[in-house]
Amino acid sequence: MNRILIAEDEPHIVRFLVKGLRAQGYATGEAGDGDLALAMARSGQFDLMLLDLGLPGRDGLPRRPAEAGPGRTGLAPSGPGQAGGPGQESRRSALVSLLSVLRSALCRSVCESRPAS
User: Fold this and answer.
1) pTM over 0.85
2) Range of 106's domain?
3) Interval 39-54: pLDDT, tens
4) Rounded CA gap, 89 and 95, in Å?
5) Any idea what the CATH number is for the domain that residue 98 is in?
6) Which one is predicted more confidently, 117 or 53?
């Protein structure tokens, strides 16, 4: 099971992401500020991080991929209008799009970590 770190300080966005990701079989962890998100990313327990660029603490972390630790993949879907608009349909569409990007990022991460044959 892939583990996704959700680095987001808006509780309604976190609830939306956790519900959608867990329904698709992903395990999740949550961090509400940049310092905690960086520490959790460096722990090696997560395969991918969904990153809000406007976090309290370390805003927009990591600025360089190496800050999160070796082999870490980060996405930044959060921001104005990104986690679903006012309607149910736009939230559903946002989740479908996010899941597609997640699967691609996880696949790339796995492929890049394999030694060349």
Assistant:
1) no
2) 3-113
3) 998 898 998 888 887 7
4) 10
5) 3.40.50.2300
6) 53
